[in-house]
Design brief:
By secondary structure, this protein is an all-alpha fold. It has helices at residues 2-20, 28-47, 49-56, 74-134, 136-152.
């Protein structure tokens, strides 16, 4: 019923707006005509208000916390809730990925420290070898002289 009553007015409004907006703007006279059509539509809609309240309740307003959205439809709230949930899920994936990278980084760091320790030990071994190889010629001379003395006995 309401849609049939308002359909003619909606078509009238569309036609007037198409005509008025042909030049790209509304002058005050045209704006007044549009507002009159809208006021008529609102008046017709208010006739159905008692019927709508009877079948769908009497609640007219929605109150929200002062820090939140002051007025939003249930669909908008559900959509935002879905988007926030999706964002939270993606953040959890990112956090888990960072934890995994951090553990890989720790494993790499530990392996690097192990390699560093082995290199330090090898460097110490090379230093020892270098020290002992320096005295090898002296030891060779000492052994040669000992052999000569033994041969002379």
């Amino acid at each position: 019923m309401l849609s049939k009553d308002l359909a003619k007015d909606v078509e009238k409004l569309r036609a007037k707006l198409a005509t008025f907006l042909y030049d790209g703007f509304l002058d005050p006279t045209e704006e007044h005509i549009v507002n009159d059509i809208i006021d008529d539509m609102v008046d017709k809609g208010e006739k159905y208000d008692p019927i709508l309240k009877k079948y769908w309740g009497t609640e007219d307003t929605q109150n929200a916390a002062s820090k939140g959205f002051q007025a939003q439809s249930q669909d908008t709230g559900n959509e935002l809730n879905g988007r926030f949930s999706d964002m939270q899920g993606k953040m959890n994936i990112l956090v888990n990925g960072m934890d995994m990278l951090r553990s890989i980084n720790m494993d790499t760091r530990n392996a690097t420290f192990d390699m560093r320790d082995i290199m330090i030990q090898l460097n110490g071994n090379v230093a020892d070898i270098r020290t002992y190889t320096r005295i090898l010629p002296e030891m060779a001379e000492t052994l040669t002289s000992m052999n000569r003395k033994l041969d002379n006995l």
